[in-house]
Amino acid sequence: MKKGKWKRGMAAMLVIALCTGVAGGCGKEQQESGSQAKTGDVGADRGRYVEREETWPVELADWTVLQIFTSQDKLHLLAAKEEDGKTVLREWEKQESGYADVTQNWLASMKLGSGDWLDARLLEAEDGTQYLYAQYMEEEQENFLGHLWRGEGDTAVEITPEKWSVPNEEWGGYEMIQGLAALNNGTLAVVSYSSMDILSGADGKVLESEQAPAIYEGRMVTEGENVYLSTSDGNGYQIEKRREGKSSDVEQISFMPDGASAAGSEESGMISVGGAGALALSVLKDGTLIAAGEEGIFRLTGGSPEGEWEKLAEGVDTNFAMKDYACLDLAALEDGSIYALFQTEGEVKLYRYEYDPNAVSQVTQVLKLYTVYESDLLKQAAVMYHKAHPEVMISIENEYPMYHYGDTDYDAVYQKLNTMLMGDDAPDILMMDHLNADDYARKGLLEDLEDVVGPMEESGELLSNITGSYVQEDGKRYVVPLQFGFTMTLGRDLAPENMASMEALAEFLSGTDYSYMGKQTTANLVYQFYTFFCNEIVDGKELNREKLSQYMKYLKAIGDNCGIIDAWPENERAADMWNLSAEAKLAFQKANGFMNCMTPVAMAEYIKGDFTAFENRFIPSLEAGICAKSQYVDTAKDFLRFALSAEFQSADGDSGFPVNRQALKTQAAKDRSEFQIYTSIQADDGSYVGFEAKSYSQETADRLAAMCEGLDKPVKEDAKICQVLTECLPEYLKGTLSEEDTIHKIEESLKMYLAE
């Protein structure tokens, strides 16, 4: 399928100590036949849903499919292409002999404005009436505007509600429509980020309107009488069933209330929900719901809230679990087949899912991977490895969802790990982020990874400036990061070399009266800078007073320029990257990959400033280790080799830079012109102005790659040191306590901790 210019733009609005002698191997014995797979060796069940890619016909070679839906229990497509500077749309039907163009005359007559982005949906009511929703930007417009038409013979009658053309008073944009549905009673149900509306299908008049009670994910679907929408709160999904789209008659359907039974299995098992991916929905005429996401494909017969969800396919056996596959649409047919439209790497692909009674699961080993935080990249690695090695399943367990904004209880994490390591439920693979990997290694709980990482470094496959930092004095290494980031310093009116280190920054700020970062608390300064020197000020079990003195002087100079305050007034906070467009002239931003750098690079360009990597230190992430007592050490090592390979690491993302050298080059050369970010920022006069982040130049991408290859040390975290510095430095930074007395105070506070 041709890569189209109809972009899915990104819109934004600003509005433990371990116990020694831990026993027990990892993994489990083979389980009873017929039950769902758990950690360990498993048997095979016959009969399951299988995934197959559909081949696009030659007639659609120049088209981009925007939507799939069903009409008269047949699969239909809405496709677009550009002709003579305009966008034309066509409807196609999948028939036994192939795809046929079934576009009605009114739709064929339409030529839409050809901008950088288009979202279009074709709706069909029970009586055959069709409606087209399209949101795009005309050449003379500054914002995307939604339009609505009703088909009437050869004519497209525009019935756009007036409210869609009225800009939002706060942020200036127009109504952003998330979903529409044509109901049997002649009305249209519409949901946007701000409202839930019922429109007249005849003229688009708003019949009922209410504030949207939630942020809905995915599309709205209907069987004609009810509409269905999904939401999530981080703990699970809820599906709203609204009769005729109205809030006066709403049922909540939990996903999943009592677990899901695997197709062909008599037992049921819980699945985890509330992950990072959205839930795709489809509904049959009798109300049977189909839901698909990273955990798999599920069916709720009859759509009853009291019903039990049936698991049709495991997520790892589908592209729903692939983070670089975005599901655009889901369509289910009465014969049990299911179609999903995906966008991946700029291509649009169609997949069919149907039950094959002869299909057999080949899984013989299930390895458990434990991570504190949910990770899309780990899920992707598990899925891709399973596709290449059908006999191996990587089961991932995490404590916190990806988007967790509360505190992390590491005491509870360590306690749980102790319990697992002492029992039969120990993980085979561990992600050591923010955990004390050295303690694990000293107690013999981690496998040496030198035979995995060493050869890949010697061949030049890996960035040894990153992975080489993990070699111990005995030549062994127990952890390897799969990704890394760095702290990017952004500034205006100062050169990159003046903001590349604490020393350079302190010297520069000492020579200016302008407060480049704005006011800061001691906690702000310590948290921002301590990871760059906390390992430097500790020498064995003692405090290195000379090094501490040096970094205290740097902090004092920086603090003097900022202005130290005791606490922030209500509704105020320290300046960050977004304040660079106003009064701030210096900010720090974590750079987590080429995609992630689009916004800070755009900000540097907007303020006519520059950026650099602070202290040439990297921030490791997904630091992988293998449990020494795992029954599957060889398999776990092979999985790590795959996770470090260019094949896996070349996929673009926004969670970190790859440690694979070729993958770094591949990502640097990637065309990201299809991605854009729109938001509003505050200007120096207090007004709000539009801000757009687009793909940066190849020169900038190469510069970022060179920065990555020049990083030489990891940052270090230590909660105790951070706490002591925060408690002991305020008087020094304000000039009311001498340097010597402050060092003595810090030394006394850390003496027992360092002696442990």
TrEMBL record:
SUPFAM superfamilies, sorted:
Periplasmic binding protein-like II (SSF53850)
Signal peptide positions are 1-25
A Pfam entry, by short name: SBP_bac_8
| Keyword annotations | Signal
Is this entry keyworded Signal? yes
Q: Which PANTHER family match?
A: ARABINOSE-BINDING PROTEIN-RELATED, DIACETYLCHITOBIOSE BINDING PROTEIN DASA
Q: What is this protein called?
A: Bacterial extracellular solute-binding protein
Q: Record the organism.
A: Acetatifactor muris
